[in-house]
Amino acid sequence: MSAAADKRVAILGGTGQLGHGLALRWALAGYAVTIGSRNPDKAAQSAAQVNELAAAQRAAGCSYRDAAAAAPVVVLSVPYAAQQATADEVRDLLEGKILIDTTVPLVPPKVARVQLPAGGSAVAALQTSLGAAVKVVSAFQNVPASALGDPSQTVDCDVLVCGDDVPARETVIAMIADMGIRALHAGPVVNSAATEAMTSLLISINSRYKTHAGIRVTGLPDQ
Ligand SMILES: NC(=O)c1ccc[n+]([C@@H]2O[C@H](COP(=O)([O-])OP(=O)(O)OC[C@H]3O[C@@H](n4cnc5c(N)ncnc54)[C@H](OP(=O)(O)O)[C@@H]3O)[C@@H](O)[C@H]2O)c1
């Protein structure tokens, strides 16, 4: 069975703003969602919220390690400062799996200014650190958590998906399509530098225009 057809996903940091929105959208799409947290009780509370909003028992909460063991596709949705340490904690459990990394290397307080790390991209650096046994796919950097977390809203933007393993990218694109959101191949993992940088542009735009902006790619053939 392909990872997308399996319909199981684990979200490390699923208690946070973006992770909650992802958990909710996949729960609504019929996925079994495992929320991982540093605090399993907090994860269980988040899962209960998702189940209430989804009106179905689709989410469960546990530790990072139990979550990473629970699904063939694992999402990393933690602050940049915790990205590497969180991945290291579950490193052995990620072998052979797809890791969707949502990280944007924001450096507070100037989050509206592009400040990419040495080497260019936080997600590409994680792929290098984890090695080829883990298929790291970059996604969701330009999607507002507020839209994902409000089931009454249509998510009116594209998800740009970068990764070196094309079948892994295909799987992630199919999983995002299951949420009712268009996702697009955006090239190898080094291209994640562009989506990570774009987030600071969107934060600037949001601040100036008092909105939650996203990216929409035009000129594509009907899919
Ligand atoms: N928010 C957005 O709109 C958005 C959009 C696109 C991309 N992103 C990216 O997605 C990632 C998550 O963003 P977010 O806004 O959801 O973040 P958040 O709400 O601040 O944090 C997400 C989760 O990370 C966990 N965490 C692990 N280590 C941590 C540490 N050292 N300090 C604080 N929290 C820690 C916490 O879970 P536990 O306490 O349960 O362990 C927390 O609930 C970030 O890399 C962000 O750049 C966010």
What's the short story on this structure?
This protein is α/β, with parallel strands linked by helices and 223 residues long. It contains 9 helices and 8 strands.
Detailed description of the structure:
- This protein has 223 residues and is α/β, with parallel strands linked by helices.
- It contains nine helices and eight strands.
- α3 (40-54) links the parallel β2 (32-37) and β3.
- The relative contact order is 0.15.
- The mean pLDDT is 96.
- Bound molecules: NADP nicotinamide-adenine-dinucleotide phosphate.
- Residues 13, 15-19, 37-39, 42, 77-82, 86, 102-104, 106, 140-141, 143-145 line the site of NADP nicotinamide-adenine-dinucleotide phosphate.
Number of helices: 9
Name the helicity range: 40-55%
- Structural class determined from secondary elements: alpha/beta
On the 0 to 100 scale, the average pLDDT is 96
- Could you tell me the radius of gyration in angstroms? 16 Å
For the biggest β-sheet, the strand order reads 3-2-1-4-5-6-7-8
- Unreliable spans: none
End-to-end Cα distance, whole Å, is 24 Å
Quote the beta fraction: 15-25%
Largest sheet properties: 8 strands, mixed
Question: Which descriptors would you attach to this protein?
Answer:
223 residues; alpha/beta; binds NADP nicotinamide-adenine-dinucleotide phosphate
Lay out the secondary structure:
Layout: H1 3-6, E1 8-12, H2 17-28, E2 32-37, H3 40-54, E3 59-63, H4 64-69, E4 73-76, H5 80-90, E5 98-101, H6 122-130, E6 135-138, H7 145-148, E7 159-163, H8 166-178, E8 183-185, H9 192-209
Parallel strand pairs: 1-2, 1-4, 2-3, 4-5, 5-6, 7-8
Antiparallel strand pairs: 6-7
NADP nicotinamide-adenine-dinucleotide phosphate (NAP) binds next to helix 2 and helix 5.
